[in-house]
Amino acid sequence: MDLIPFEERWAEKWDKFVMSDSVNGTFLQTRNFLNYHPLGRFADKSLLFVKGNNIVAVLPANICEEDNGKILYSHQGSTFGGLVLGKAFKKISNLEPIMQLLDDYLLSNRIDEIELKMTSLLYSPEETALLDYFLQLYNYSVTYEMGYYIDFGSYADDIESNFTASIRRDYRSSLKTEFTFRELQTNAEIGEFYDVLCENYQKFGKLPVHTLDELLYFKNMCLKDVVRFYGVFQDDIMAAGSMVFCFAKKVFHTQYLACRHDMLQLFANNFLYRNLIVVAKELGFSKISFGTSTLYQGKVLNKSLAQFKEGFGTKEYINSTFKKILRNGGC
User: Fold this and answer.
1) Cα angle value 91/93/96 (rounded, 5°)
2) Which letter, b or e, does each residue of 21-43 get, where b requires 16 or more Cβ atoms within 10 Å of its Cβ?
3) Phi, psi of 108 (to 5 degrees)
4) What is the DSSP string of 181-222?
5) What's the confidence (pLDDT) of residue 249?
C-alpha cells in the first residue's frame, strides 16, 4: 500500500470511490463538492491510500499554520469527512498499514496536530466501528457533538401526535397567522433566505459559513440534484427558511435553519419544522436530520435549541471528531 498526495488526475476515480465504493463517503467528500472553494481559501493536502490502481481510502484534508503549530484538518471546506474507507478494504489487515502510513506522513511533514471530523453513522452507507476503534488504537482522543433526527420507521403517521404538548400547542398557534410553506425556486428567493440567515448569525457576531454566491452555485451547478431550499411566508414576506442536503442514504438534512426574530413569537419556526418533516416523509426519505445543538466541538450544549428539537419527537445522534497531538514527539 502507498500513500500519495491528491492530484487532479485522480478526481474522477476519487469521486466514484467516495460515492459508490466506500463505507462512509458522502457527496461532502467528493472533489465535485470540495472544488467549489476558490483557489487559496485552503491549502489542500488531500491524501490517497492506494494498492496498485485501486483506492483503498482517501483523506480530504488541508493544512493550517496556527499558534499551536502546523495542523492537518480533515477538510475544513466540508461539514465532516475524515478518513473515507473502501468497502472492500474494511479489514484489520488494511487498517493497520493505513494508520501507519498516516503516522509516517505526519512525522515526515512535521505536522504538530491532526484533527479528523468523521462522517456520522447517520449519514454513512455502512457502519464504521472498526475504523473508530483503530483511531483510538493509534492514540487519537475523541470529542462528540450531539444532533437530532427523526426516523420515520418509528414515527407515527399523524405527525403532530409525535410532538410534545408545548410544541403541538405552539404549532397550532402558528396556524392563526396563515403562514404558507413552499420550496424556493428562484435566485431572488434564495437571496431572501440568505438575508434571513444573516440576521440569525448577527446575534453571534458572525456570517454564515457560505456566501450567497456559493448557495446559488450549489443550487444551479455542483449540487443541483442534492440541495433544496424551503421558505415560510407571511403574505409575500419570508418569515423562516431552510437549506436542505439530500443524502443518498435517504437522510433529509437541514444544513441551515433560520427564522426572522420578529416571527419567533408567531411560531414560524414550529411551522417550518413541521412542514419540513411532512416534505421529507412525502419524498420518501427514511430520516430527517435537524443538525447539531452543540458549540465548541460539543463542549457546550445549546440547551434551549436541543430541547426545542426534542419536542418534535426526535432521537439523538453524535458526530465524532478525532484528534492527535504530535508536537511532543511521536505518534
Assistant:
1) 100
2) bbbbbbbbbbbbbbebbeeeebe
3) -70, -25
4) EEE--SHHHHHHHHHHHHHHHHTTT---SS-HHHHHHIIIII
5) 66
Instruction: Show the cell assigned to 208.
Output: 454564515
What residues have CB less than 8 Å from 76, skipping those under 6 apart? 42, 62, 64
Neighbours of 61 (CB within 10 A): 24
Instruction: State how far the Cα of 53 lies from the Cα of 45, in Å rounded to an integer.
Output: 20
Q: Measured between alpha carbons, how far is 81 from 26 in angstroms, rounded to an integer?
A: 8
Q: How many CB atoms lie within 10 A of CB 47?
A: 19
User: Whose CA is closest to 32, among 78, 72, 76?
Assistant: 78
Interior CA angle at 189 toward 207 and 243, to 5°?
A: 55
What's the grid cell of residue 185?
Answer: 425556486
3-state secondary structure of 29: helix
φ and ψ of 181, to 5 deg:
-130, 135
Reading the block at residue 67, the C-alpha cell is 499558534
What confidence score (pLDDT) does residue 76 get?
A: 84
Which of 127, 57, 125, 139 has the alpha carbon at shortest distance from 94? 57
CB 236 within 8 A of CB 223: no
Whether the per-residue pLDDT at 63 is higher than 60: the answer is yes
Cβ proximity of 289 and 254 under 8 Å: yes
Rounded-to-integer distance, Cα 243 and Cα 254, Å: 6
Q: Per residue in 280-310, pLDDT tens? A: 999 999 999 999 999 888 899 999 999 999 9
- For the chain, list the domains and their CATH numbers: 2-138 (3.40.630.30), 148-318 (3.40.630.30)
pTM exceeding 0.85: yes
Gap between the Cα atoms of 260 and 189, Å rounded? 15
The SS3 call for residue 71 is: strand
pLDDT at 269 over 70: yes
